[in-house]
């Protein structure tokens, strides 16, 4: 007759319980020494196995969701960004907005933590067992354009519509063609009132007509993206540049508004280029 411990070992092999199998000898020896009870031994073995599997699931899900490198709310320095209400962010990280299929907007100048907070909430969602996908707006539009060209648009929209939380990062950094805006609209429509989104942007909603190169599509987009929405506006200095504040012009330092700075005051004769804005260094 096979001894009980050997039978347990074989069962663990058949059940692919690698971690429990690894821990078995140690747990049994503690049991024999009377350090733990039989019930505690069972609990310990199952907990070890579960921990390993949960860690593995989260690792795979974070990579699939494109949430690497991982950002967390614990690593966000709220004291650096006083315009961000810690309690409000923590409440959002309870993820009720995902159940309600709402849209969460993070608005603010570059470096103020929009992508960090969006990612951190995505990571919290993955840990809670939700499916998440993150991409930049430019990458998504590129992928949708390619899919359309190859006759796979429906499939691709279905892919972006599938996750229970879709994070679209960096709206406003690059201008979008009207074809691209149209594709994004189709996706937003597919998710509308069905799936939650987090959007980050360095530009105000008033500028969406300009970003998407078409005021009509921009209005239709905003109509859906602001219907069930939470807007978190960040006003403050860039965390990236925190050690270089002396190098940054005063008007872009703290409390930079998300509307562009006013055009530089002109002195004397009119500009040769008809007043087109120049990017000053
Ligand atoms: P944004 O998306 O607003 O341009 P990011 O979220 O990418 O800015 O932030 C830039 C970098 O600074 C990232 O590495 C991010 O983790 C870090 N960061 C930004 N704000 C904070 C903060 N308040 N505490 C800790 N790290 C921060
Ligand atoms: Mg960002």
TrEMBL record:
Stretch list, region Disordered: 250-281
Statement: the UniProt record of this protein carries the keyword Hydrolase: no
Domain of life of the native organism: Bacteria
InterPro entries attached to this UniProt entry: AAA+_ATPase, DNAC/IstB-like, IstB, IstB_ATP-bd, P-loop_NTPase
Annotated keywords: ATP-binding, Nucleotide-binding
Gene Ontology biological process terms, A to Z: DNA replication
Pfam families found in the cross-reference section: IstB_IS21
CDD domains recorded: AAA
Record-annotated AAA+ ATPase domain positions: 100-235
This protein's record includes keyword Nucleotide-binding: yes
One Gene Ontology molecular-function label: ATP binding
PANTHER family per record: ATP-BINDING PROTEIN RV3427C IN INSERTION SEQUENCE-RELATED, CHROMOSOMAL REPLICATION INITIATOR PROTEIN DNAA
Family: Belongs to the IS21/IS1162 putative ATP-binding protein family.
The protein, known as: AAA family ATPase
Source species of the chain: Paracoccus gahaiensis
């Amino acid at each position: 007759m096979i001894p009980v411990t050997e039978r347990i070992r074989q069962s663990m092999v058949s059940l692919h319980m690698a971690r429990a199998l690894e821990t078995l000898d140690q747990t049994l020896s503690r049991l024999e020494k009377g350090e733990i009870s039989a019930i505690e031994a069972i609990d310990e073995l199952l907990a070890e196995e579960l921990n390993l599997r949960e860690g593995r699931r989260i690792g795979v899900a974070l990579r699939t969701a494109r949430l690497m490198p991982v950002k967390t709310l614990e690593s966000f320095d709220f004291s650096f960004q006083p315009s961000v209400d810690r309690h409000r962010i923590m409440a959002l990280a309870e993820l009720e907005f995902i159940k309600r299929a709402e849209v969460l907007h993070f608005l603010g100048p570059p470096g103020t933590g929009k992508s960090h907070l969006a990612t951190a909430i995505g990571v919290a969602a993955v840990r809670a067992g939700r499916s998440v996908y993150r991409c930049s707006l430019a990458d998504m539009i590129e992928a949708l354009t390619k899919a359309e060209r190859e006759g796979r648009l429906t499939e691709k929209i279905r892919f972006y519509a599938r996750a229970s939380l879709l994070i679209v990062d960096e709206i406003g950094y690059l201008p979008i063609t009207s074809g691209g805006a149209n594709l994004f609209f189709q996706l937003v429509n597919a998710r509308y009132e069905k799936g939650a989104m987090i959007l980050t942007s360095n530009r105000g909603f008033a500028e969406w007509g300009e970003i998407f190169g078409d005021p009509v599509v921009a209005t239709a987009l905003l109509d859906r993206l602001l219907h069930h929405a939470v807007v978190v506006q960040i006003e403050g200095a860039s965390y990236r540049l925190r050690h270089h504040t002396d190098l940054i012009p005063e008007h872009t330092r703290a409390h930079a508004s998300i509307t562009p700075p006013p055009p530089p005051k002109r002195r004397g004769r009119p500009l040769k280029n008809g007043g087109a804005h120049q990017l000053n260094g």
